[in-house]
Design goal:
Layout lengths: L1 E8 L16 E4 L1 H7 L5 H12 L2 E9 L8 H17 L5 E5 L12 H13 L5 E5 L7 H6 L2 E4 L8 H16 L5 E7 L14 H12 L4 E7 L13 E7 L2 H17 L11 H10 L5 E4 L15 H8 L5 E7 L1 H10 L4 E6 L11 E11 L2 E3 L9 E3 L3 E6 L2 E6 L9 H4 L10 E4 L6 H4 L5 E4 L33
Helix pairs in contact: 2-6, 3-4, 7-8
């Protein structure tokens, strides 16, 4: 079997200022995809493994992926999309197509880039060529995506520790389809309900996932997934959906999706709506016995469109006079360069962070001792994406009033302790370890953390949905409209 592999992947926070250009995307073609993902716990890595196991000819075409950010410029999206589609058209014919997408991509003129890509792919390959799509569970899933794909496989967990397995499942499902063993039929139930980023490690999502997995154990049920949606997107359809897939039984797929959706709706008040502020989170961390205590600043999570240069939490840590604490990392290429030029052992005056927009705080004007510098390169060890090569550009370890602060030249959330180890920091020796991430960090830090406390500072990923001004979202939607009823 000859299978095309490719995708355009972006989680779009439409509340970010400006537009995302094509140059912000890491663009890989052909063997570059194999080199970047073979042995890596990613969707593509799983697909590569499964194709090899089946003896299939997996043809890597084009994959573009960018750190979550603002709406994609319309022309930039079309260039990336058409490069993928041209590959499918020019390198064909194919026996099947495996697309690695996201589900929350938005471009100028395109509220649903995934639906657009899958529809255009279908037009190229025809009705009889199977199309399987892997997706992030934070997708604002649409009927268009489901209608034009034979099978959509969103990951189940947040942190996304099952990306590799979903990539494997995509290829394994194509093998079953080719053998005539399955004929996937899906139903998408859309809830008028939006939630902020919420880990699947804890109730209610952990328990809802178990209900979905129980459905998958039933004969004839191929998949059942709760999609969380992505709240920081001002488009008509945002929020929770349930996708159920059966073996040639559309009525049963609808019944299952509606049943799980009803359970989610009945438990909607259990989803978190407010968290501690930074000034509340720090005393709570200090009062917790044992170490390390992880303070995660989800509201400035670069993995959800936050700039990563917010200063609210770090400012509060400095004001609290913390000593046995580290912060990793804040994005500020200018300060990282300044530290590299000064070299370790120097004392420098810096204006750190707060350079993207006022929402995330003003720059910190501080004196910093340059404790170390690095090239920002390491191998990710978290169960999520393990084996990936990370490059954060020039980095520095600064001592600011007794707090070890890491500064990077590139935006990224912190997923595991490797970035600290790169700079000689053993997080186990610190009382407080502060990071910018919503939930993905849990895969790498939960096994070693004594406690995890989230600090909800002002930012583009705040759990306070009332902080966002929506203009285009279909209303009513809970909890923005508390009296929303369903069905």
């Amino acid at each position: 079997m000859r299978i095309a592999l490719g995708g355009v992947i972006h989680e779009t926070n439409t509340f970010c200022a400006g537009l995302t250009p094509a140059s912000d995307f890491r663009q890989l073609a052909g063997d570059e995809i194999l080199a970047a993902h073979t042995g890596v716990r990613s969707y593509q890595g799983g697909a590569i493994e499964a194709a090899g196991r089946h003896g299939y000819d997996l043809v890597p075409l084009f994959v573009a992926n960018a750190t979550p950010s603002a709406t994609i410029a319309g022309e930039a999206y079309e260039v990336l999309r058409d490069r993928l589609l041209d590959g499918i058209r020019d390198e064909g014919p194919f026996d099947a197509v495996c697309l690695t997408l996201h589900g929350a991509g938005v471009a100028e003129g395109y509220d649903d880039i995934e639906g657009d890509i899958v529809k255009r792919t279908r037009e190229i390959v025809g009705a009889d060529t199977p199309i399987v799509v892997t997706l992030d569970l934070h997708g604002n899933m649409t009927a268009e995506m489901v209608a034009h794909a034979d099978l959509c496989l969103p990951c189940h967990y947040y942190p996304h520790i099952d990306m590799y397995e979903r990539g494997q499942e995509a290829i394994d499902s194509l093998a079953q389809m080719a053998a005539g063993e399955i004929k996937p039929t899906s139903h998408l139930t859309i809830l008028p309900m939006v939630i902020a980023t919420t880990t699947s490690n804890l109730p209610p999502i952990s328990e809802i996932n178990e209900l979905c997995f129980a459905k998958e154990e039933e004969d004839g049920v191929l998949d059942c997934a709760m999609n969380h949606g992505f709240a920081p997107a001002d488009i008509p359809q945002i929020g929770i959906t349930v996708l159920a897939t059966t073996n040639d039984d559309p009525e049963r797929a609808k019944a299952i999706a509606d049943e799980i959706a009803g359970i989610i709706w009945s438990r909607r008040d259990e989803f978190p709506h407010t968290l501690r502020t930074a000034d509340e989170a720090i005393p709570a961390a200090l009062a917790t016995e044992g170490q390390p205590v992880i303070l995660n600043e989800a509201s400035d999570n670069p993995g959800g469109g936050g700039p990563g240069d917010g200063t609210h939490l770090l400012r509060a840590m400095l004001a609290a006079g913390l000593k046995n604490a580290t912060f990793g990392h804040i994005w500020d290429a200018d300060v990282a360069e300044q530290a590299h030029e000064a070299r370790p052992g120097a004392t420098i005056q810096v204006k750190l962070g707060g350079k993207t927009e006022e929402l995330h705080g003003e720059p910190l004007e501080v004196t910093a001792y340059v404790k170390g510098i690095s090239d920002g390169q390491f191998i990710q060890q978290s169960p999520m994406g393990q084996g990936a090569r990370i490059d954060l550009g020039k980095m520095a370890r600064l001592d600011i009033d007794g707090i070890d602060v890491l500064v990077s030249s590139r935006r990224a959330q912190t997923l595991d302790p490797e970035v600290f180890l790169l700079h000689g920091i053993d997080v186990m020796r610190y009382k407080i370890v502060a990071i910018k991430s919503s939930a993905h960090f849990r895969a790498g830090f939960e096994p070693i953390a004594h406690a995890i406390i989230q600090a909800d500072t002002p930012g583009l990923n705040s759990v306070d949905l009332d902080a966002f001004t929506y203009h285009r979202v279909n209303r009513p939607v809970w909890p923005l409209d508390p009296d929303t009823s369903w069905p």
